[in-house]
Amino acid sequence: MPVKGYRPTSTSSTTDASAAQRRLLEVGRIVKPHGLSGEVVVDLLTNQTSRLDEGSELFTPDRRLRVVGARAHRGRYLVRLEGVENRTAAEELRGTRLYAEPLDIPGTLWVHELVGAVVWSVDGRRLGPVEAVEAHPAGDLLVLEGGAMIPLRFVTAHRPNVDIIVDIPEGLVD
């Protein structure tokens, strides 16, 4: 029987096969250069803006990048990276995926810890493993093997990568 854990507050990040081997999570993508001084436009794929705090380390498939500064700009972020001093250097990073180490924030559900975990109802019924987490405006959904979907708001407890307890209304999953 699963063990109760803690109540979720948010989800963040996506995973990719090569990054998973290194235990890194994809957290963003460099879209394009901005200006002439080496700044880049970043699409952040996480709700953890601390990923772009000064001094934060980001990784690409072949190098480590240190954030020198960042600011919000039109739904994206303008980021200065150590060693990227001009537009030419910034242009070389166009399209680059950015990875980072997992964060440890108590009470937070992370996508990489949900996918593969087995979902159980509070009455002990095995509902199946999580195949994916889908983002929806009303709230993220756990997608179970077989296609059933359970809103994250019904999660009452979880053990990362092991199991998830849900308190679902009768008839939601049959």
Features of the shown structure:
disordered N terminus, mainly beta, 2 domains, six-stranded mixed beta sheet, six-stranded antiparallel beta sheet, SH3 type barrels, Elongation Factor Tu (Ef-tu), domain 3, 174 residues, 3 helices
Provide an overview of this structure.
Helices cover 8% and strands 39% of the residues. It is elongated and about 60 Å long. The chain has helices at residues 17-21, 87-91, 111-114, and strands at 25-34, 39-44, 57-59, 64-73, 76-81, 97-100, 118-121, 126-134, 141-144, 149-151, 155-159, 163-166. The chain has two domains: 1-14 and 104-174, Roll (SH3 type barrels); 24-100, Elongation Factor Tu (Ef-tu), domain 3 (Beta Barrel), CATH 2.40.30.60. It has three helices and twelve strands, in the order αβββββαβαββββββ. The chain is mainly beta and 174 residues long. The two termini are 20 Å apart. It has a six-stranded antiparallel β-sheet. The chain has a six-stranded mixed β-sheet with strand order 10-9-8-7-12-11.
What does this entry show, briefly?
By secondary structure, this protein is mainly β. It folds into two domains: 1-14 and 104-174, Roll (SH3 type barrels); 24-100, RimM (Elongation Factor Tu (Ef-tu), domain 3). The protein contains three helices and twelve strands, in the order H-E-E-E-E-E-H-E-H-E-E-E-E-E-E.
Q: CATH-wise, what's the superfamily of the largest domain?
A: PRC-barrel domain
Q: Which regions contain 5 or more consecutive residues with pLDDT less than 50? A: 1-21
Instruction: Please give the share of residues in helix.
Output: under 10%
Q: Would you state the CATH class of the largest domain?
A: Mainly Beta
Q: What is the domain total for the residues?
A: 2
Q: What structural class do the secondary elements suggest?
A: mainly beta
CATH architecture label of the largest domain: Roll
Give the CATH topology of the largest domain. Answer: SH3 type barrels
Number of helices: 3
Roughly how many Å apart are the termini? 20 Å
Q: Order of SSEs, N→C?
A: HEEEEEHEHEEEEEE
**Order of adjacent strands in the largest pleated sheet:** 3-4-5-2-1-6
Q: Using the CA coordinates, give the radius of gyration.
A: 19 Å
General shape: elongated
> Biggest β-sheet: count, sense, barrel?
6 strands, antiparallel
Beta-strand segment tally: 12
Mean of pLDDT: 87
- The percentage of residues in β strands lies in 35-45%
